[in-house]
Amino acid sequence: MKETWKPIKNYEGLYEVSNKGQVRSLNYKRTGEIKILKLRVDKYGYLQVHLSKNGKHYAKSIHRLVAQTFIPNPNNYSQVNHKDEKRDNNNVENLEWCNCKYNNNYGNRNKKISESISGEKHFMYGKHHTESTKNKLRVAFSGVNNPMYGMKGDKSPVAKKVKCVNTGEIFNSIREAGDFCNMKYPSNISECCKGKRKTAGKHPVTGEKLIWEYLMP
């Protein structure tokens, strides 16, 4: 496959990404030189690159840059799947837009997650809520007190997109984000977005506590 380059959205004239997963600067260190940038591996095994604009630096995942630039997304899916399950293979032919459920059930993902959070590895292993805590949770998250009250899934007009700050992944709703990290109370994500709590839920593979924010339109 011939390598093709296209401008990165919001970085036109500064950076380009190729259909083979490479990124180049069109004015490297303001010298006028065109240079392919070095990629780094984040803590989750995904390749990323750092882009600069207006004096600020931004970490961008390569698979999302390739998908956003080369792959149509008519269904407005929020996640990008690696077909061969190799996170460093960001060739456009290996990527596809998908929803959270498809991504979670794809290939060997469920097996890996099951092995990572089962038994003693599960973050709630050996822990139990007191009856007092259980009663408080029932009251706090029942009826109109529940941030999900009145919502009908991802298609609800009041559902807000949320972003996981740790991974950069975007979800169409709090419910979808809660499904991703197997949360019993996804409304905690709403509390985190509002600044009422520091974290909500843990990454299903790494166990890292997650930070959330609403995605601004």
| Average pLDDT, all residues | 82
Structural category is: alpha+beta
Question: Helicity level, as a percent range?
Answer: 10-25%
Number of domains: 2
Distance between the termini: 36 Å
Helix segment count?
A: 6
Rg over CA atoms, rounded to whole Å, is: 20 Å
The CATH C-level class name of the largest domain: Alpha Beta
Describe the structure.
This protein is of the alpha+beta class. It is built from 6 helices and 12 strands. Residues 152-157 have low confidence and may be disordered.
Write the layout of secondary structure elements.
Elements: E1 5-7, E2 15-18, E3 23-28, E4 33-36, E5 40-41, E6 47-53, E7 56-61, H1 62-70, E8 79-82, E9 95-98, H2 100-105, H3 109-117, H4 131-140, E10 162-164, E11 170-171, H5 174-180, H6 187-193, E12 212-214
Features:
217 residues; alpha+beta; Homing Intron 3 (I-Ppo) Encoded Endonuclease, Chain A; Arc Repressor Mutant, subunit A; 2 domains; 4-stranded antiparallel beta sheet; 3-stranded antiparallel beta sheet; 6 helices; 12 strands; 22% helix; elongated
Brief sketch in words of this structure:
By secondary structure, the chain is an alpha+beta fold. The protein is 22% helix and 22% strand. It has 2 domains: 5-98, Homing Intron 3 (I-Ppo) Encoded Endonuclease, Chain A, CATH 3.90.75; 153-217, Arc Repressor Mutant, subunit A, CATH 1.10.10.
